Amino acid sequence: MQIDDHQTKLMTAAGLNLIAQALTIYDADLRLVLCNAPFQQMFDLPKALVTPGASFQETITLLAQLGEYGDVDDVAHFVAERVEQARAFEAHYMERTRANGRTISVEGSPLPQGGWVTVYTDITRTKQQEALLRARSDALSGQVLAHAEELSATNRELAAMNTALEEAKRQLTLSEARTRLTTEMMPAHIAHVDANACYTYSNRRLASVMPGRRADLIGRHITEVLGKQAYDSIAPSLTQAFAGKPSVIEFTDEMSARRIRGAFTPDTNGGVYILSMDVTEETQNRVALQQTRRREIAAQVISGLAHDFSNLLTIILGLQSRLGRLDGQPAEAAPLIEGTLAAARRGGTLLSSIADMTGARTLRPTATHIPRLLEDLTLIARPTLPKGMTLSIDNQMGDTPVLLDSGLVQDGLLNLILNARDACGAAGAISLEVRQVHDTWIEWVLRDTGPGFSPSALEHGFDPFFTTKGAEGSGLGLPMVYDMVKSAGGDLRLGNTAHGAQVTMRLPYRPAVAATTGLVLLVEDADDLRALVRDMLMGLGHSVIEAASADEATALLADLPDIALILSDIQLVGEATGLDLAKRLPPDAPPLVLMTSLPPDDAQFLEAQTLAPVLRKPFEAADLTALIAPKEIAAQ
């Protein structure tokens, strides 16, 4: 059952009213925060002075006028002194006799945030008993009397200590609530396990980082929660943390196909604090950037060599051609000359392949329909297969448009199919299965009924110039597919089945933008560029509303519910960027496309790819429409 703030206040007030002592809490501005009914009854105060916000000064003035503090000659001076004492408040305990003859104790304790708590206790009966004890002191030993007085003072000190402890407990509870709220808002799983590897704390974010895990973690062993495969991946680092040394690890969670980074920090009691984050998209972008840099380095080395070798091959071709035209040559010279020419031409083809593999190729992802891509692939691949060979394709993706560089993907798949054809010989079967792995990958699995990969091919298949085809192979087919996959942030694996070879290609799953012709919110701070893009959108049949900053765009989104698409630059005037705008959008916001002139290895470009499709400047209308899948098609 949920209890609202009003009910909580009523229940708190009722509890305080049951206390025999009078209690008040004043804030740092000397205003009443809280008091109970015994306080009003003890001093017979009007309602105005027991209402939250009542002035401490007015209350003291009334009590002084009523004789609560005995004969006071100058009430104003007396009140001023009491107010100054209150502003420099210190913990204290005192006893005084009121005008009505009753004796009260006054215990005060300051609060950490300013102000104080005061407890008033009627000790008249206690004082009477003490006086009675003194009157009978002749019959009692001095030791018993001293003990009774000491016990009475101790009881009063304990009462004051209890008040301070209750306030400390309240502050601790408030701090714990703030800490839990902070951890719940973090996009990571924060947990603690004891020395037996059982959970003692969790911020309940494990299922969002590693889908498929249970929510009730407390008291369970980490193996039971994560599963054997994930536990085996982190076991060395966790053991290291149990030994007192912090550690960090990255591993792939097979259950969710996500890349996870875990940080393990030992505590002082033999347990371990665990921080887990989903770094799948970060890893995909990092892999793509590493492959691009490797290609750039290779291109720098090879470009110079290719230039010199091209010149040499040109000279060889020219000289051999002239030699073949000379008269009076022996009969056996012709085939030698032709062999030399063929070898030189083959060298030129290899140089072109190397240039293609290492040259600067920019990925151009577009809204791609997998069935259409596979149909085109089938039309190209089937005519290249022998009559005794079959090609079957199983598409489990449906017709949902995704962002892919369809040309490079088709080239890579065709290369794999041709490799499978060469391995099978004159007859056999090739199958291609396409499926989605959670919301992380598109997986393409190509299998054949050939002899499978040899151990050396499994180890060196992605190395340039490694081939099992002898003189017929260049050794550049699989490396080129590997380069394409890594450049897109994916993964390529070689393996064998019981019936032949298997190649598994994974590419990041990124749904395409689905939008209809309608109102487009264009966010661009450069006036001339905004005008050009506006004309481009209007030429495509869209209506356009413009904003020059992320804050202006946010305001327009709140006022206009009919926006069909948002097209925003990443770099904008003001503190907020296009990335900030993307993070502000609610789940039901219109589709977003980001545009930028930043290089692909820029940190903002890499982050943008994790938030929305990215359109690189300069671009034309065709580049924009290629990123957008019509909503009526995307919904099929």
From TrEMBL:
InterPro entries: CheY-like_superfamily, HATPase_C_sf, HATPase_dom, His_kinase_dom, PAS-like_dom_sf, Sig_transdc_His_kin-like_C, Sig_transdc_resp-reg_receiver. Its EC number is 2.7.13.3. Keywords: Coiled coil, Phosphoprotein. Residues 304-511 form the Histidine kinase domain. It comes from the Bacteria. Signal peptide: none annotated. The modification 4-aspartylphosphate is found at D569. Residues 148-178 form a coiled coil. One of its GO terms (biological process) is phosphorelay signal transduction system. The keyword DNA damage does not apply. GO terms for molecular function: protein histidine kinase activity. Residues 519-632 form the Response regulatory domain. PROSITE patterns: HIS_KIN (PS50109), RESPONSE_REGULATORY (PS50110). It catalyses: ATP + protein L-histidine = ADP + protein N-phospho-L-histidine. It holds the Pfam family Response_reg. This is histidine kinase.
